[in-house]
Every structure is written in C-alpha cells, then in structure tokens.
Design goal:
Layout lengths: L8 H12 L4 H8 L3 H26 L12
Helix pairs in contact: 1-3
Length: about 70
Amino acid sequence: MVKTKELSNFECRRIIGLYETENPERTILRKTGYRKITIHNIITKYHKTAEKMQKEFIESTGKEVSKIHKRQS
C-alpha cells in the first residue's frame, strides 16, 4: 500500500472554498491537481462535520439553525 501525505488545513479549506463557490468536483480537481477521491472525501467529511455541529447546537440551545445547503456533485 502506498503511503500518502495528509493535506494541510489550508489545502482542505481551499477545496471547501472552491466547493462553496459552486465549483463541481471535476473543476476543483483541475484547479488543485488533487485526485477526485481526495476531493470527494474532503467534501463528504465537511458535510458530516457540519451536520454534527448543527445537531450539537440544537441539543445545547434548543434553537433551530438554518438548513445546510447541499448540492449534488
């Protein structure tokens, strides 16, 4: 198995920034040079983390927050 380098927080935030500005995964791939699976995994983890944070906020405050905008890649 090939050992790979983990992306830095800056690199992950760059991918999420591109995703949040309506860039599809294929465009992000061309702009960053990272593999499609890497980009997809970062975006998936981003959504899971956001959903978890939303649930924790609701449980701790009892207040609803706006829905997370999900788009199909």
